[in-house]
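comment on this one:
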Amino acid sequence: MLDIYEFSAVFPSGTEIYSQNVQNNIRSNRRTLGGSLFFDKLLGQLHVKSGYLYPPAKDGNLEELHEKIINAEIADHYKQSLLYYLLKDCSAFEDAEVAETFAKKSHLPHKYWIVIQGLWNLDHLEFEAALEYLTHPSLLPAFTEDILCVLIEHGKPVNKHLPLAYYNAVRPPLTNPDLQKSYFTYLARLSLIQAYFFIETQPVQDHKSLFQLLVDDALQHSRSDSPSNVVDELINLPLTEEQEAWFEEYLLEGKGRTYHAARDTVVARRLALGKYTEAIEVGQQLSGRRFNDINWDGIKNMVTTSLGSRVEIDSVFDPSKI
């Protein structure tokens, strides 16, 4: 079994792992990830006070970092994990087998090998590769909210489904309100319907605010490929009676009333539900307006034909009486 306490047994002699280019890449990735790599977080969680030594910038820094790791009051498998991470740097730039050889010879438990591989990929902005490891069913969740946050902020340009895939596999608790809002906004722009059903998975006290955020996002951020689809989906959601009240209150009386299409959306919703006279009541100010390429006057005429004498349509829609 390899002796992890012997520096020369862990790091191949004569191997220059941390060239200036490698150091610059690591520091650049740290800035991209908000000033903290997942390796930094791991060192902090294990109480190894050595952040200033990574990446090793001077002769002897790597040996000093090794010493701090092996002298830390943590289990050997944690020490092996940290050393394996450092050898991954070597694998990337020098010997592709050195990290795996170390893992085998030191008998690093497989689940720790998997999680370190995933965190190393994250720190190197290799998001798709990271998820192959970090969603492995054998892993206990670690840094789950931090990982989701990184995927929302940086993973979408690579693959817009990465945050959703990670959330569905790991189910982080979203205890941070900002992260909950960030993930919900991401989900709403990916799929309004998925975001709607996601609301039910969250604490009851958050349902109304998330629902309002859903309406906000639908009216503010139309999809570039088919802008009208977002509002169409909103109008046709299977709202509960309580949500129906939230919907109308928010768009007719609350903050949402300031949106250009707020009243139009309520009218369209009422029409979709077959509430024709109620739609006319709230749509009296919309004469001459267009909504999703439909002229409200044309809608008025169709409703007039359908309802006949049951409602005085013309007087309701007459702009001179508003």
About this structure: Residues 1-127 form one domain.
